[in-house]
Amino acid sequence: MSILNADLHCHSVVSDGTLTPEALAQRAAANGVELWSLTDHDEVGGQHRALAAARSHGMKYLTGAEISVTFIGKTVHIVGLGFDADDDALRQGLAATRGGRGERAQEMSDQLARVGIKGAYEGALRYVGNPELISRTHFARFLVETGACRDTGEVFRRYLTEGKPGFVPHRWATLADAVRWITQAGGIAVIAHPARYPFTANEEYALFTEFKAHGGQAVEVVTGSHTAAEAVKYAQTAREFGLAASRGSDFHSPDESHTDLGQLPYLPGELTPVWELLAERIQ
Ligand code: AMP
Ligand code: MN
Ligand code: MN
Ligand code: MN
Predict the structure, then answer these.
(1) How far is CA 42 from CA 67, 80, 236, in A?
(2) Is 137 helix (H, G, I), strand (E, B) or coil?
C-alpha cells in the first residue's frame, strides 16, 4: 500500500542530526508518521532508543542505518532497513566504516586554517554528539556559527566539497560489503537519494547493476533530497531495475532541513513500497 506516511530516513545526535532519537520520534508522530526509521550514518547506537520512543507514540518502526560507501571513487549512501541491530558482522562493519573520521577531520581543519579559518576541529567537535561520527555537517555548523557562511547550503557551495577548501577524500565501505552487512543481518539495502551523486549515465547504470548483483533490493524515490522531477525519474529507474521504492525526509535539524519528518509526497502507486518486502521486520 503506497498511501502510508512512512519516513524511512533521518538523523539524530547519534550521527549528524541535532535532535535526540526521542525528540525525533515525537516530531515524527506529531507530523503523522505511521512507520518510522532512524537511519544514522554508519551507526546503530540509537536504534534501541528509537524503537522504544516509536512504541511510546504508537508508531511502527523499522531499524535503520545509512552506510557511507566508496563506489568508483565517489561517495554513495546505502540505507539499510529492517536488519537485526545487534548483528555482530554489521556492527563490526559499521565500526570499521566510522574509523578514520578523526584524522580526516583534523586534515579538514588544517585545510581550513590555511584559508584563514582557525580552530575548526575544536569548533566542529562542540556540535558532535558521537565522537566517532565527526562529519562535514558538524564543520558546516561551526562555519555558520562563526559567520563564515550564512547557512549550511552556502558552506557546501564554498567549502568541504571537491575542489574547495576543507575537502578531504575518504575511503568508505565497499558497495559489496555494505549490501552484505545489511542483508545478512536480515535487512534490505536501499540506494539513498540517487539524484545527488555526480555520476555520468554510464556510472549510474553501473551503480544500479552492481547493487542488484550484490543483492540490493530498493531505491529511494521520494526523498527530501529529490525534486518532483527527480522522483519521477527514479520511479522509472526502480521499474527498470525491478527495485522496490522507499520514502524518507533525510531530516537532520529543524534549522537546516527543508523537508520535515513525514512531510513529503506519497510514493507513486505503481511501485512496490519497500515496507511491503519488510512486513515481518516491522516492530
Ligand atoms: P561526511 O559523512 O562527513 O562526508 O558528511 C556528509 C554529510 O554532509 C551528509 O550526510 C549531509 O548531512 C551533509 N552534506 C553533504 N553535502 C551537503 C550539501 N550540499 N548540503 C547540505 N548538507 C550536505
Ligand atoms: Mn548527514
Ligand atoms: Mn545521505
Ligand atoms: Mn541521510
Answers:
(1) 5, 10, 29
(2) helix
Does ligand 1 have an atom closer than 6 angstroms to the CB of 97?
Answer: no
Q: Is 140 helix (H, G, I), strand (E, B) or coil?
A: helix
Closest to 208 measured CA to CA, from 180, 239, 231:
239
Dihedral angle sign, alpha carbons of residues 130, 133, 137, 142:
positive
Ligand 4 center–CA 121 separation, angstroms: 22
Give me the tens of pLDDT residue by residue for the chain, a chain 283 residues long.
779 999 999 999 999 999 999 999 999 999 999 999 999 999 999 999 999 999 999 999 999 999 999 999 999 999 999 999 999 999 999 999 999 999 999 999 999 999 999 999 999 999 999 999 999 999 999 999 999 999 999 999 999 999 999 999 999 999 999 999 999 999 999 999 999 999 999 999 999 999 999 999 999 999 999 999 999 999 999 999 999 999 999 999 999 999 999 999 999 999 999 999 999 999 9
Residue with cell 556559527: 145
- Ligand 3 centre and the CA of 241: distance in Å? 21
Let me know if 204 is exposed, middle or buried by CB neighbors in 10 A (0-12, 13-18, 19+). middle
